Structures are given as structure tokens and as C-alpha cells.
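Checklist before submission:
- one chain only
- standard amino acids only
- sequence pasted in full

Submission:
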Amino acid sequence: MILTADDLKDLRLRTGRTQADLAAEIGVSQSYIARLESGSLDPKLSLVKKIVDVLTGRTGKLCLEIMTADPVTIAAREVVSTAVSLMRENNYSQLPVLRGTQVVGIITEWDVIQNLQHNLHEISVEAVMSPSGALMVDENTSVDVIIPLFENYQAVLVQNQGRLQGIITRSDLLKLI
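Returned file contents:
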């Protein structure tokens, strides 16, 4: 698909941005945007890509750039009360669950709440952790790819060569603003 000057203008208008707003976001002058939209300027492909990324909400960032590195984890055999303590101490709503160095799941506040009828000092994390497992992506995955996942997941774990490197939560996505 070839984008025309009119297409770029329509896209800008649909996002509610002025020429000055767009110019500031991509680092050019307002007159440059006006000339681009009038068709009197033939921009570099890299600049058009940057404009499209800005106007479509693409971040251009990789998971490793916004993740919380070296996340607090908990062993699968640990008791749930220990997980609760770690969550409270660190103000986290979930923790990756490991068996050795292997990620086997994630325990969330909701998992704990659903199991309040049990003695949390005796029941293992593995017994209550989210059955769907942990969602893992490579650290070089584009953030744009994972954003839709947060409609169904509280966190995405980030790995490199099978090793847990970080975690991205909804609050980490706020770093994009």
C-alpha cells in the first residue's frame, strides 16, 4: 500500500493532532508537515515510517526497553503466605513462579483471593497459581505486539534464551507516555 500526502493528513486529523503537534512529536517544523501534506515535499521513507508509527500509536520500543529487569520471583514449592509477603513488601500484584530456573507460572493477587478458604501458610504457590501459565515473550519483541495481550493478562514475562529477564505489567506500559 502506498501512502499519499492526503492519507497522512487524514490519519493526522483522525488522531486529533495539529500539524504543530505532529511536527513536535517527530522532530521537524510545522511548515515541513504542511509541505508534506500539500505534496510539495518528497520525504525520506524513514520519516514517513516515523510519522505513521506516531499516528497509529506504534511505539517502536522493544520489551527489554520498558520491562522491569530481574523481577522478584517465588519458588513453586514455597507457601502462598510467603508470596503474599513478597507482593506486599514490593507492592506487586503478581510474581513469576519458578521451579529451579524454569518459569512454571505466575501467581496473582486474584489467585490468592480465590484460595482464602485454605491455610495460606500450608498450601504451595504451585497449587494456587494461575493455571493458564505465564505468558512469555522474547526481550526483542516489539512492545506494540504485546499491548493487546493486556486485555486478558496482568503481566507478560520477558525472556532471553529461555531465562527470565524481566516482567512487563500495565504500569510498565505507562513508561511509553
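Reviewer check: The chain has ten helices and seven strands.
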